[in-house]
Design brief:
The chain is about 45% helix and about 10% strand. It is mainly alpha-helical. The strands form two sheets. Strands 1-2-5 form a three-stranded mixed beta sheet, with no helix packed on it. A two-stranded antiparallel sheet has the order 3-4. The longest helix is centred in the middle third of the chain and has 23 residues, at about 85-105.
């Protein structure tokens, strides 16, 4: 069995050895990809990387996400005590909860994150930019950098998609 990530969406994929080098369609993003040809390995223990670096979290996604979540919590508290409080505060708190949950999932070694979920939250951050500039900037940074980073790099999970 060949295990690899889709170069377009980062989904963890598996393919039969007989499909090596063949053109396939990713079941997650529907983009065409080529099943990689396995390289020969020398028997021995797996390579050891720097401590704490087994899961490289893309900081260009993580930092704006966390800043926006904290900002939205603080802004919601501020808006809550104004005349339009609940109308703005509640959606900001809900968005902050989703941002914190996404942050935790991105840092979790066992959790595969769908890039579409990251995009949806970034779009919600941009919409929240109608009342605050920080989530707008965070959403734009995340959306512009998401295609160039692998948010699931190094994750080992049972949630892999198999080629049939």
């Amino acid at each position: 069995m060949i295990r690899y990530n889709c170069p377009h969406c980062g989904a963890a994929l598996e393919a039969q050895d007989s499909l090596s080098g063949q053109d396939q369609t990713c079941p997650v993003c529907q983009q065409r990809t080529i099943v990689p040809v396995p390289t020969t390995r020398v028997a021995g223990p797996p390579p050891i990387g720097p401590v704490g670096k087994s899961r490289q979290v893309p900081q260009i996604i993580m930092i704006p996400l966390l800043v926006s979540a904290i900002w939205n919590c603080a802004a919601a508290v501020g808006y809550f005590f104004t005349c339009i409080g609940v109308v703005i505060a509640v959606p900001l708190i809900i968005l902050a909860i989703y941002e914190f949950k996404l942050y935790v999932d991105l840092t979790n070694q066992q959790q595969i994150v769908d890039p579409a979920r990251v995009r949806k939250i970034a779009i919600c951050e941009i919409i929240a930019g109608l009342v605050s500039l920080v989530p707008l900037v965070a959403g734009v940074i995340i959306l512009t950098n998401l295609p160039s980073v692998d948010i699931n790099k190094g994750k080992s999970s049972q949630q892999q998609t198999s080629w049939q």
